[in-house]
What we know:
Layout: E1 2-3, E2 6-7, H1 11-32, E3 34-36, E4 46-48, H2 52-62, H3 76-91, H4 107-127, H5 132-163, H6 168-173, H7 180-183, H8 185-198, H9 222-247, H10 258-275, H11 284-313
Antiparallel strand pairs: 1-2, 3-4
Helix pairs in contact: 1-9, 1-10, 2-9, 3-4, 3-9, 4-5, 5-8, 5-11, 8-9, 8-11, 9-10
Amino acid sequence: xxxxxxxxxxxxxxxxxxxxxxxxxxxxxxxxxxxxxxxxxxxxxxxxxxxxxxxxxxxxxxxxxxxxxxxxxxxxxxxxxxxxxxxxxxxxxxxxxxxxxxxxxxxxxxxxxxxxxxxxxxxxxxxxxxxxxxxxxxxxxxxxxxxxxxxxxxxxxxxxxxxxxxxxxxxxxxxxxxxxxxxxxxxxxxxxxxxxxxxxxxxxxxxxxxxxxxxxxxxxxxxxxxxxxxxxxxxxxxxxxxxxxxxxxxxxxxxxxxxxxxxxxxxxxxxxxxxxxxxxxxxxxxxxxxxxxxxxxxxxxxxxxxxxxxxxxx
Length: 314
């Protein structure tokens, strides 16, 4: 059985590739952080540790899961494992060197629908443990998502309008002469910010804030915490791959094969997003006025400009 010429079992290597890219992001994040030196566990001296993700993963695998009073035993596992699943569902429509697991005619809509699914998953991650801090973190994410979602929708609309199609492969093909990032910089920046938003990353890490003991991560321990952290990196990886397809020409490039160009570009975008973790966190109530009064009009003007250019060229 095949889907658009690609065997359905291709979802397995797609999942492996997604996790490999996510792990690369985690390694880079660990390299940018300072951890206590092995000979100085008190942290008086710190060093950059590229192996920090491996050390942390090994620690979490040995750690027992934390139990709370009256957790939601049905919905808590959905919130815990859901981010990894959603990231994979995003990744199946992203072309890598011209090959896609599911080359849907509405691939851009599918990606946006999976982003909306993140809303439910993160809220369930906060609701499931029956914890005050977790529930506060879940509601913080919903408040934050209300700020970035509309700008994200219109940022996705711009390349679709230019290509005249919602199929991601068509969007990549439409960039054969000029990458969309060149004349859609606002949409590109808004898209990257939204990726950080649905990944709860960097300035958008408010739902997992330290002031609430980690928010949606507050009660997660052991394998549960490892799944949630992996899900965040996987969402960053999927968002980076989509940014390459929509704005950076996909696998286009000289000398190297298309799949390798897609991977290299994805890693570059991922590195930019990972580095954004060092930016200060913005509270949802302060983010909303900027998003609705400044960012949304800017991205709407971007879509208008793209529409005019497309009509004139057509």
